[in-house]
Amino acid sequence: MPARADHAYPGKARDLLAQDGAVILTGLDPSADALVVAAALIHGSRLRHLFPMRERRTHDGDPVHLHADSFDIVVDVGGRPVRRRDPDEDSVLIQCVTPPAFGGESFVADAYRFVDDTADTDPELWEFLTTIDVDLYGAWTGIRGLPATPRVARHVEYTRTGRRIVRRTDGAVPLHRDPATEHIHVMLDRYRHTVHDLERSLPRFRLEEGEILVLDNYRCWHGRDPHTGDRLVRILTLLTADANG
């Protein structure tokens, strides 16, 4: 359960983020500018790159399963390639603009703990996550702006500075003509089902208007329950000085 910290005390919020991998920032208005201010308050001079803000509006929304924000989108703007998303985004901020009338509670999982526990409870899955390369976005090849070159990685890797990354995306597929294709499909299904089972045990919390959930995107996964009525959030992903690459 992420702790709450008032934006007037950014040092406390940073400490909670470092300790738990997640924190809820309070006291800001629900404007787009406030979301950018929150990123600066949390990361300060370690901010390296902000990506375009996204709005997600849903009506009577279906559940969103645990995931880590990650994508690879490059577009052409005025004849120049411009990156709108990056596979190595290491921080995500989710601002509640309009909470739903009913439901829509959020939940967060510590992916580091998940992987460490899996080493004992399911060694085969742990070996898959830590040793097998997949194409992270191969299931989404029809999306314009997604590079044709496969993004090859393991679900669990480390940055050059030793920071652990635990990925969770429904876009992962086996590499083209990988001899272990059948096994990889089996393990991807097991991974998905295991994560979905985990969701049931996680504590829920409600984001109120203006509150911002800040996540270490390498460490924590997030999701939300179904809801009735309208819900609007803004999402800001970024790279810090500690990001991979």
Describe this structure in words.
25% of the residues lie in helices and 33% in strands. The chain has helices at residues 10-20, 32-43, 111-121, 123-131, 181-199, and strands at 3-6, 22-26, 47-50, 54-59, 64-67, 73-77, 80-85, 91-98, 102-103, 106-110, 134-135, 152-153, 156-158, 164-166, 212-216, 220-224, 227-228, 230-240. The strands form six sheets. Strands 1, 2, 3, 4, 8, 15 and 18 form a seven-stranded mixed β-sheet that branches. The chain is of the alpha+beta class and 245 residues long. The model has no long low-confidence stretch (mean pLDDT 97). The longest helix has 19 residues, at 181-199. The protein is globular and about 55 Å long. It has five helices and 18 strands.
Q: Tell me the total number of β-strands.
A: 18
- Strand-residue fraction? 25-35%
Low-confidence stretches: none
- How many helices? The count is 5
Task: Describe the sheet with the most strands.
Answer: 7 strands, mixed
- Measured as a percent range, the helix fraction is 25-40%
**Structure class:** alpha+beta
Order of helices and strands: EHEHEEEEEEEEHHEEEEHEEEE
Termini Cα gap: 30 Å
In one word, what is the shape? Answer: globular
Radius of gyration: 18 Å
Q: Provide the residue-averaged pLDDT.
A: 97
